Amino acid sequence: MATGIWLAGGRGSVAVTSIVGATAIRAGLADTTGCVTELPQLRSPAFPAIGELVFGGHDPASIPLCKKAEALAVAGVIPARLVAALTEELATVEPEIRPVPAAATQLETAALIAEDISAFRYRHSLERVVVVNVSSTEPAPAAHPAHADADALRQALGEPGAVLPASSLYAYAAFISGCSYIDFTPSTGARLPALDALAHRHAVPYAGHDGKTGETLVKSVLAPMFAMRNLRVRTWSGTNLLGGGDGANLADPGANAAKATSKQRVLGETLGYEPQGNTRIEYVDDIGDFKTAWDLITFSGFLGTSMRMEFTWHGCDSALAAPLVLDLARLTAAAHKSGRSGPLTDLAFFFKDPLGSVPHSLAEQWALLASFVRGLADA
Amino acid sequence: MATGIWLAGGRGSVAVTSIVGATAIRAGLADTTGCVTELPQLRSPAFPAIGELVFGGHDPASIPLCKKAEALAVAGVIPARLVAALTEELATVEPEIRPVPAAATQLETAALIAEDISAFRYRHSLERVVVVNVSSTEPAPAAHPAHADADALRQALGEPGAVLPASSLYAYAAFISGCSYIDFTPSTGARLPALDALAHRHAVPYAGHDGKTGETLVKSVLAPMFAMRNLRVRTWSGTNLLGGGDGANLADPGANAAKATSKQRVLGETLGYEPQGNTRIEYVDDIGDFKTAWDLITFSGFLGTSMRMEFTWHGCDSALAAPLVLDLARLTAAAHKSGRSGPLTDLAFFFKDPLGSVPHSLAEQWALLASFVRGLADA
Amino acid sequence: MATGIWLAGGRGSVAVTSIVGATAIRAGLADTTGCVTELPQLRSPAFPAIGELVFGGHDPASIPLCKKAEALAVAGVIPARLVAALTEELATVEPEIRPVPAAATQLETAALIAEDISAFRYRHSLERVVVVNVSSTEPAPAAHPAHADADALRQALGEPGAVLPASSLYAYAAFISGCSYIDFTPSTGARLPALDALAHRHAVPYAGHDGKTGETLVKSVLAPMFAMRNLRVRTWSGTNLLGGGDGANLADPGANAAKATSKQRVLGETLGYEPQGNTRIEYVDDIGDFKTAWDLITFSGFLGTSMRMEFTWHGCDSALAAPLVLDLARLTAAAHKSGRSGPLTDLAFFFKDPLGSVPHSLAEQWALLASFVRGLADA
Amino acid sequence: MATGIWLAGGRGSVAVTSIVGATAIRAGLADTTGCVTELPQLRSPAFPAIGELVFGGHDPASIPLCKKAEALAVAGVIPARLVAALTEELATVEPEIRPVPAAATQLETAALIAEDISAFRYRHSLERVVVVNVSSTEPAPAAHPAHADADALRQALGEPGAVLPASSLYAYAAFISGCSYIDFTPSTGARLPALDALAHRHAVPYAGHDGKTGETLVKSVLAPMFAMRNLRVRTWSGTNLLGGGDGANLADPGANAAKATSKQRVLGETLGYEPQGNTRIEYVDDIGDFKTAWDLITFSGFLGTSMRMEFTWHGCDSALAAPLVLDLARLTAAAHKSGRSGPLTDLAFFFKDPLGSVPHSLAEQWALLASFVRGLADA
């Protein structure tokens, strides 16, 4: 029996790159570069095969998958030859990415979402479905007393008005459907006590937050380097220039703040102190999917000598994110199968702002991940 | 009883920065930033205190330590106020840095070196002495049959002509004096079967090669990052601009080749393949001690998407090296005391071109080091 | 007879670097690197000699010049040996940098300023005095009807309340004293119709705005390069990290906006269109006087091919500004002597936001300047 | 009557990009971005229209133009849609790019080259033909006494053996055919007294050397910036990483030396002194046509303060060169028509290593060019 991935934001760049990629790998047209779960050190029979993943999802946009894939090819994110070769396969997925349901109350909306997921599951005889949020970053939501308690939450959702942001409503719908949930964005997702309780009640695992694809990935190896050498980082200042849909969205101060906080967390937690400097995000339409990040790091060494390092990262966010979406879905499905529930803190390797009190050094996160995978295989 | 450090190249930038630093720490005028053995995770009662280290050495140059320290202050390597405050202390070390002995055969020269070290040891009632090579990088020496066997080596040294390069003759002299030996340079040092056998015969440990202070340090965390993310590094091309004495020396093609090989080794061993590109070293007098390295890395990710990263490292080599010299002396002295002999492969963390078949990822090297330090404390 | 420079902000970094520099040149302790008016192509007998310049000024701060100079030496802006050698000379200037006068109305304050300048002039038998604003950048002032007319302005100044920002009040005081005026900052200065009229009425010249010392200087040669090659600049995005007093001040959104606008003006005027991207200024205390600017430029060439350029500028603002202050004072004094009055648009070479409708390409500005200097010599 | 361009190296990247580009412009499928002669300030009725240029040439390779164009599209140099749209037009040019003739003596080879050019000219009723060398860079040739005199040269060419390198033999063939000649490479081309004499004898103009497309272009505006500001450049060190055919060729030490010398010339001539540092060229196959250059510049300013600038240039050499080939052909054809002969030193704007004693500052070169174009229009 196969495993399903239900993508909130199923027509966005990350989702479509994931779909094209998994389909290309199944067809033998692409290798698995970028997929962490395909490394010899991590490969495991506990994972569903990439070629057996089945895709569905919701998206408010109606652009056909093929058109979106062609646009991604023009932007240099995926090769045009793959899009041409996979037209039929994409047409098969096309009807599975449905409009976002809407109802009078959030409780009814959640029920409609759950219904779509269940129908998808039965349509494809799926063993289980992993719900993955790859939609646009939300501003931080207003606090609500019902966020603290699962039963109070159910009651509040039944009344008109928005109690949960969309990312959290998806987590809610996933949990009541018995599905695991992954938040690849900095949005709230499952990070509310009421939702955590619900995940445990339904015995499903969840993972997040905010896929670590570029500048923060580099920070998560450089900051430990300075720490291991007892060098004092004085300034760490970052500029991120990005275009594309997510860029425009992050130019919104609310979303920007959520992201920028998430991006600096690694420094304080790895170094043990906060260096000077901020992380800035600027939307530049012309940059498109190829984000450019520039970081300046000043540090002092022996006897106070001042030194500096700069780096420029020029990465394609969707191409970096998509294989991690496949990895996370495989890992979370296997964890679900093996009986894990609640937050999967051992998946910190994949996230800028990981769940739980975990190390932020990439090497330590790798060790956690490897041990987690061994645990799955033994189960 | 105190521990001695005998510096081959005792009037060079690294040596004098080490001496000024240890003296400043003893006097309470500087903190231990840059000293790895002072990190909470590694601190150990097995180490001699930095303040109790006693310095001596050899150098063909005759520049007074004070003058050299003043020049380093003008170059921005050490603060002028420290040099001013430590005039008396430096004057005390001054006579301990002696001219390099020379005799008719290398055997006699080694005996004179050993005599100087022994006299230093008894003069200061030192428990043990660590010999550290911080002199200029040598070209690769001609092979000699006597390099393979300790007894053949002893005999060959007794004849006129150069059998060993200077760095190896220091290792020889150290071992026959019962002293441990560290090679902080890419020179041959103790890396000859005859010298390894001698170290075991005299039950002394040795460590090396080539202190990892800048560009290679960064490589040792970035290369594993690409590997852990299953990203394919296609090009890794580095340019190193440096001035100062070592810069001029490395402009010599022979020395340059030794260094450049040492600097690329981390890539093949961490990635499992050799990306395109080389490491270049250019001598630019005006750059002085503040080396600038620029690296371009191109890599491909999911579905072959091309991406790139650049970094510039602007570090003061002597200020980065000096605390590691103190660290290595403390670690090697403690290892000697605890009965270790032969190559200390667990100290790979400190070297570009470490001894033995060891990991090149900084995080794995750190784990080796931490376990080594715990072993010393338990001993 | 000598020429005086009256510095509004006389104890700031730029002012003190200018004073130390001119004094060191007079004493034969420094050469004139950085002084444009000392280039063979521009040197002219029309200029007062650097060694004959006499300094005075106002500053709300009371830090002694010597202390400020020592702090600049520690920060690496000026050599410590110069400060040590010029203690006596700085002590002579010390009493000439006076507290900022304050009175019940701005008219009275202007009179006190004018009085201080006149006393300075007579005390040193100065042929003429150039007033230079090197004080902190002001936020954009509120519009006031009296800004449009010199007589209305005089009347409004006589009433309580602030009609003019400080930079403009200095221009007012300069003009009524028969002195020329230079604004080295992005503040309003003489850029009001009433003040322009006043300059003409008193037959004095003025110059400004905002000394072009770093990132904008580079833009003023790179933007014409793209234009001359018919390459289409798509994005020009700049990040400026700076510490020091001016950095803290520019972190204020009002001042920041003035500066950022001034810094982008060169692009639109040189390219003929506005590329995407902004200029950001971030205050990072640790960076100090050595500003780091990073710019990303993306452009398209033949058949639409996308290309990119990045640059990092790591310059000491005070060291770049100080010789230009001397240049501007010499040029403006010579212009005054030769009978020029009103805006000196031919000095655009020195400014980010030059007066008048002038070219922004550095090479064209150089041609204007050279012709201006020839005109002075002929006069 | 139309103008012909005869390309030595007609199937190389620069040649094919030029052909595709001119064809696309004629078909209205591309604009003239990158063409300097299309700027409003330079446009002139004296130039042949881009759409009326007719292409022919020689190349030892036999790859069809269409295949080469497709490869350039895959490499991102030209858009795939243009190649698809221009298949027919490229097929028309296909037979005009012929194999390189070879005969027993260079004199006979030159006659065969001249014959091909003449046949091309009559076949298309061309008013005139410009011969452009865009073939691979040659090593510096051995000196030969016949290089000094046109008659001696003719005689020497009649004997077996190579008297002239290929680039110079093309200049010879061009001149005896009454055609102008442009060397876009650092090869010798027309730079021999015998060839200069021949050009004058046949009353034809010639231009060169080495198209200024990237790093040197940037140098030619930055070096004057430092000079105009009286800042002392201490180090200028450049690294060029490039792949593609020319990259492999430049890895040859002989060709590399020619190129590197050509690239540093701008510094000495613009600054008036030689800063420290070299220009390095490294062949990295993976980089392809998109060259990456990194330059470090250190400079001192007022009172000796040390500062630095770095830039990275990531440009597509063929896309930068191709429009300049069209520009040069139009300018040289117009010059020929107006009666100019000998070296066209006013075209220095286009070259790294221009003919004659001319300014190396881009702005001054622009002024020369603009005045040259005005002269053509007046003629």
From TrEMBL, chains A, B, C, D:
Gene3D superfamilies: Dihydrodipicolinate Reductase, domain 2, NAD(P)-binding Rossmann-like Domain. InterPro entries: Myo-inos-1-P_Synthase, Myo-inos-1-P_Synthase_GAPDH, NAD(P)-bd_dom_sf. Residues 214-318 form the Myo-inositol-1-phosphate synthase GAPDH-like domain. Belongs to the myo-inositol 1-phosphate synthase family. One of its GO terms (molecular function) is inositol-3-phosphate synthase activity. It comes from the Bacteria. It comes from Phytohabitans flavus. This is Myo-inositol-1-phosphate synthase. SUPFAM superfamilies: Glyceraldehyde-3-phosphate dehydrogenase-like, C-terminal domain, NAD(P)-binding Rossmann-fold domains. GO terms for biological process: inositol biosynthetic process; phospholipid biosynthetic process. Pfam families: Inos-1-P_synth (PF01658), NAD_binding_5 (PF07994).
